Amino acid sequence: MSEPQLAPTIGLEVHMHLATRTKLFCPCAVEYDAPPNSRVCPVCLGMPGVLPVMNEKAVELAVRMALALNCEIPDLAKWDRKHYYYPDLPKNYQISEYDQPLGVGGWLDVDVAGRTVRVGIIRVHLEEDAGKLMHAEGGGNYSVVDLNRTGTPLLEIVSQPDIHSAEEARAYGEALRQLAVYLGISRGDMQLGQMRFEPNVSLRIGSDAAGRPRYTPISEIKNLNSFRSLERAVAFEIARHREEYEADPEGYTLEKLGKTTRGWRDDSGLSFLQRSKEEAHDYRYLPEPDLVPFMPDRKWVDELRASLPELPAQRIARYIAMGLSAEIAQALADENLIGQYFDDLTKAVARLSKTSGDWVSTRGNKVCHDWILQHVRRTLNEKKDDMGEFRSKMPAERLAELIQLVEEGKINRNTGVEVFNEMYAANKPASKIVEEKGLVQVADSGAIEAFVDQAIAANAKAVEDYRGGKKASFGRLMGEAMKASGGKANPQVVKEILLKKLGG
Ligand code: ZN
Ligand code: MN
């Protein structure tokens, strides 16, 4: 009775490149900016008589992702040849997994604007990517092919039709990417085409006499490579199905029309019919005779499962419970190594801190995430380093020591940033840099008074302006006094003394 009218029912197939150094079946490098056809060998060129050799790292990453998605890892997964002819796939078949994938039956909880949507995972499997076919621009009647991408490890993740809007489809795609990047399974670089989405969309149109659900004809949209086009294409299909169904409620049904495959044009914002959907038997799947089935050692699987870190959603919840804002919790949980660094840093700061536990749980946490989100992030961008490299050059204990020097007032905040940069460049502890460069903050009021007097004497005009009501001149005098101290004065003390001397 209360069945939702024309409820969108959406499943998503996601392909992502795995973060391996080499291809799935040969030692060719996975590189995105190499000259065309320079990262190829007889295996990925599909020469006769060559044999594939399975990339162990790719299998491990695939199993890790399947485990992170709460999948079962069956005792046996097998490889199959999926046949089709396309010029960017020289073997004329793709090695994939047909009926026995390496991961089955999982789920992912997705946050959609504050609501949690659980999306079931039907299967996770490993396969190889094809090359890239480029059609001549400017009217040339030919195409060229680059086979560098041929044989790149691809993970395919197929969801249950548990998605019910374009917004949810996008949120699910983003959550998958976040998880994969977080775990180091994929770089998830959308610009490089490392993720592609294929949603299938239909609307539920009530039930038949036997109570089975009925649907509009499922359309699968191929090869979307951004979150924006995923969201737009799904929204477009939902509206198109609704229109077609309302125009012909008897004819526009899955039983009558079956499935279709459609393309998407981002510029016009329209989908278009490509072909009626091929069935599995069209691919003439055959077991791959050159690869042994994958029969994972249970102990190895258990170890992989146990080694999974705390996942982003749990970590975000824990940070929010610690009192951090949702935005900061999200930023820290962006990457596992950043979250780990924050955890290590707060612990190290607590160990060094001579003040009470309250300081650590309030101010201490804030200081730690400020340093990470500002200066660690900035350094990663500037140096193009990843968090693993950062951590080896500046372990959390070292940054904690610097934080302690700033918080105790031994050096001021600006000096702290200077020391931070120097620590990273020179790989030295903070105390050593402070000592070598004589950066200890001057908080002695006698010494600071002398700097303030110097600033007042040398800037009579600013003093006059300030006393005449131009309050902005205060900043100028403050800066001059700090400069006189070589940047080492405690700014709070400078401010107090300067205010007193100016009589304000
Ligand atoms: Zn190769
Ligand atoms: Mn596939």
What does this protein look like?
- Helices cover 42% and strands 18% of the residues.
- The protein is of the alpha+beta class and 504 residues long.
- Strands 1, 4, 5, 8, 9, 10, 11, 12 and 13 form a nine-stranded mixed β-sheet that branches.
- A hairpin with a 7-residue loop joins strand 6 and strand 7.
- Helix 8 (336-352) crosses helix 11 (396-407), helix 11 runs antiparallel to helix 12 and helix 15 (460-467) packs antiparallel against helix 16 (473-484).
- The N and C termini lie far apart (76 Å).
User: Average pLDDT value?
Assistant: 92
Bound molecules: zinc ion, manganese (II) ion
Distance between the termini: 76 Å
Q: What share of residues is helical?
A: 40-55%
The general outline is: elongated
Radius of gyration: 30 Å
Largest sheet, strands/sense/barrel: 9 strands, mixed
Number of domains: 3
Tally of strands: 14
The fraction of residues in strands falls at 15-25%
- What is the SS-derived class? alpha+beta
Give start-end ranges of low-pLDDT stretches: none
Q: List the total number of helices.
A: 17
Helices and strands in order:
Blueprint: E1 7-17, H1 56-68, E2 80-83, E3 93-96, E4 103-112, E5 115-128, E6 132-135, E7 143-146, E8 153-159, H2 166-182, E9 195-207, E10 213-215, E11 219-221, H3 227-247, H4 254-257, E12 260-265, E13 270-276, E14 286-287, H5 298-306, H6 312-321, H7 326-332, H8 336-352, H9 357-383, H10 387-393, H11 396-407, H12 413-426, H13 430-437, H14 445-458, H15 460-467, H16 473-484, H17 491-502
Helix pairs in contact: 2-3, 6-7, 8-9, 8-11, 11-12, 14-16, 14-17, 15-16, 16-17
